[in-house]
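As the next step, I needed to go through one protein, both as residues and as discrete backbone shape codes, included below for the reader:
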Amino acid sequence: MTTRPAHVGSLLRAAPPDRLPEVAAEHLRTTLPAVTGMEIFLSDLTMTSLWPVIDPEGAPGGRLEQRVFGSQLPLADAASGQVLLPLTVWGDRLGVLRVELDQPAAPDLVEHLTGPADELAVALRAAEKDTDRYHQVSRRQRLTMAAELQWALLPGRSLGGERFKLAGQLEPAYAMYGDHYDWALTGDRLTLTVLNGHGDGIEAALLTTIAVNAMRNARRSGANIVEQAELASDAVYSRYGGASHVSTLLLEIDLTDGAVEAVDAGSPRALIAHEGDIRTVHLEQQLPLGMFGDGRYETQKFQLEPGDRLLVVSDGVHAATPAGRPEYGTSALLSALRRTRLQPPAEAVGTVMRALRDYHADVEPEDDAVIVCLDWLR
């Protein structure tokens, strides 16, 4: 009786969290004789480069790996005998899997490798909580303590569904202050939050941690965004007595029709782009969270139409004035947003962030920056 080889998903679930690459490589070599090698490339924190896991001293991902990471489409390179596949979980781009062969890659082999790549991506995402190996690959320098707190708090880098695509980026990656974003998908509701914490360094990170966890606590108890804002405001005020606050924009998007409820508690700003036209979402600002005790908030509403792109930015983006230049949000932000028209959100946030860096030129940013981009597809 012939014993069938174990499914790669079963092998990965049984493997130690730090040995997933080696287990996946051994499985491919055993089940596909044409396979001669494998490497996993993970994105760095700035989403600008890809770094090897199995051979950490090896060369970073090159043009082909970057192409697959950006397009999210598998690629068979006949010249080099390689197959490259995106490693993505629920729209969150982790990196790229490179499989080396001793023969040209046939189309059916590319299709066959898609399943193991997807299983490996899910396993890598789950293993991040139990090993530092993959974090060490993604970090190209040491994080400040504030940045360590902020990265541990983030939900992910991107998220996708049938009706929407979503991505966020936070910089500077290795030395953050108090800016942050959060999101959660439950049924037909997508909750999105962008925060700009008062102060800098670890104190700002601790302030943001209190606010984010208070909102999560309320949200996970079934509270709406008004109750989330009020609980977070009370939590911040009880800790700081009004000396520190968190400017916050909370959005709850109905994924059945694109209706949006918003609580605008401060400085994050929202814009909607549609077929080249860009407009600001005008909301009445209420007091930042934690400024006063017993703070109360109200919702406002706006509507997303099919094909709309919603961009939410912190004041480190829209209010940036490097070397006395006009605010970035006055016109430069609009120009950068227009250049993203044909890009998915995961690429668009990088384009806008790079344009912000160029706007600063040689001037060190005075604040950190958050950009969140949502495409409403339905």
Q: What stands out?
A: The radius of gyration is 22 Å.
